[in-house]
């Protein structure tokens, strides 16, 4: 006679299973992330010894292209976007070769002055290691996807020292407007463990609690709302610059090696004209902005351009750190326009750009608490949500799946990748007055019809 397990027994076993698995993945990702980031720090320190080390940028982009084209073509693709695509299309199956190849390509790109981030490769390496664990355990389908999401969460958490935001990011970045709650527990465990392991291994993080917050007033809150809209426009600009960079690369009728040399040479010339502040990770500029220091007002536009050229013409790396650079420097520039404290607005821009460009307003709002303190968090959260909406149906991670429309008055297909969406308004009068009139009528109609 068979005995049936009670619901609570099955749930307890499941909880125990995922705590153990997420702990193992978190520890593995913490170790790999630490080694990766310390390698990048070594490369950055080497480049810092020479004033014009960025002249090697064409060779760096060329090397990155040659590695994929002639040595390991099966490891093509880079950053978190590739991981997102593998989760949606291949149940999170990632080729093991991706791990060392992505490590090497990103190190070469950033060490020679290419503009990119470190969170994408960390997430990709973490997800690749999680996929290896899934192979060993012979997991398929849902369980494999859960483990790979844990790898993303652990990589993001240990890179930036934000375990809670990293855990949410790993789930939120997959879909625009939706979160997979069944992965909540393992993502939190993987994020926390990964962060703790990296801290134990000596990885240090930047925390900058904002001490000066103006007393709440209607005028101040309105300024925060305006800033959120401006950050949304900056996010729009960044995403479109990335898209145009890829379009320009496809339009150039040259072999990939020559494209890399050409783009690298152009970036070297731009570096001599505008300085080398926009090469590499740019952490010193981010730090200066968050401390209220002076940065050029056009810095966020230059970083968008440098990053687009680097990633579109053969370089490898993530987009997260450039997003933070754009947000922090845009906040510094807008602080003069809005007459606000530059350090505070740079901190808000830091997270608001992540919310808009990555479509992750919840993770970005939590990050504001972890990095800048609870006092600035309510205002940062408002700016994050506004930036997320203003950016529209586009993303720095085009493999994201659109789960929810950002406006009921926009015609867009839900359920497909963001890269394939073609939003359009659902009425003929496209003037601002026409839009407002239509939305008011629609709200009244829906109010009469009921929810």
Please outline the helices and strands.
Blueprint lengths: L6 H42 L8 H15 L7 H12 L7 H14 L7 H19 L4 H19 L2 H10 L2 E2 L7 H17 L17 H34 L4 H19 L8 H8 L8 H14 L7 H19 L3 H17 L2 H12 L4 H14 L10 E2 L7 E2 L12 E2 L6 H18 L2
Parallel strand pairs: 1-2
Antiparallel strand pairs: 3-4
Helix pairs in contact: 1-4, 1-5, 1-6, 1-8, 2-4, 2-10, 3-5, 4-5, 5-6, 6-7, 6-8, 7-8, 7-15, 9-12, 9-13, 9-14, 9-16, 11-13, 12-13, 13-14, 14-15, 14-16, 15-16
How would you sum up this structure, described in words?
The protein has 451 residues and is an all-alpha fold. It has 17 helices and 4 strands. It has a two-stranded parallel sheet. It has a two-stranded antiparallel sheet with strand order 3-4.
Nutshell version of this structure?
The protein has helices spanning 7-48, 57-71, 79-90, 98-111, 119-137, 142-160, 163-172, 184-200, 218-251, 256-274, 283-290, 299-312, 320-338, 342-358, 361-372, 377-390, 432-449, and strands at 175-176, 401-402, 410-411, 424-425. By secondary structure, the chain is mostly helical. The protein has three domains: 7-200, Clc chloride channel, CATH 1.10.3080.10; 218-390, Clc chloride channel (Orthogonal Bundle); 421-451.
